[in-house]
From TrEMBL:
This is MerR family transcriptional regulator. Keywords: DNA-binding. It comes from Mangrovivirga cuniculi. PANTHER family: BLL5018 PROTEIN (PTHR30204:SF15), REDOX-CYCLING DRUG-SENSING TRANSCRIPTIONAL ACTIVATOR SOXR (PTHR30204). Residues 12-82 form the HTH merR-type domain. It holds the Pfam family MerR_1. SUPFAM superfamilies: Putative DNA-binding domain (SSF46955). The keyword ATP-binding does not apply. PROSITE patterns: HTH_MERR_1, HTH_MERR_2. InterPro entries: DNA-bd_dom_put_sf (IPR009061), MerR-type_HTH_dom (IPR000551), MerR_fam (IPR047057). The lineage of its organism: Bacteria, Pseudomonadati, Bacteroidota, Cytophagia, Cytophagales. One of its GO terms (molecular function) is DNA-binding transcription factor activity.
């Protein structure tokens, strides 16, 4: 069952948890970590990556640019560098619209 962000009050997340939240493979997160400076997970004593909410938001921005908008990796890097606040604002709006859509879909289901 996917994680619901609002239900999670954790400070740190494993790569598996992040992969489930974003709905991608852990290998893709490791790849993006090597390509994008904005993803900087710390490592625990065992050497496992531990991600903060800020890391997750950065990964969501990259996902949005690369997977949803079709940017190349270089294009996504440039967008993050030059228009970071615009990307964040658009991503927030998209998130809110998805929440509204989910709410309306659930409401419709209950009414049928």
């Amino acid at each position: 069952m996917p994680y619901k962000e609002k239900e999670i009050e954790k400070k740190y997340f494993s790569i598996g948890e992040v992969a489930e939240i974003i709905n991608v493979a852990p290998s893709l997160i490791r790849f993006w970590e090597s390509e994008f400076d904005v993803i900087k997970p710390k490592k625990n004593k065992k050497g496992n990556r531990i991600f903060t909410r800020k890391d997750i938001e950065s990964i969501k921005m990259i996902y949005h640019l690369v997977k949803e908008k079709g940017y190349t990796l270089q294009g996504a890097k440039d967008a993050l560098k030059n228009n970071n606040q615009d990307v964040v604002s658009r991503l927030e709006v998209i998130g809110k619209l998805k929440d509204i859509r989910s709410f309306l879909t659930e409401l419709k289901r209950k009414l049928d």
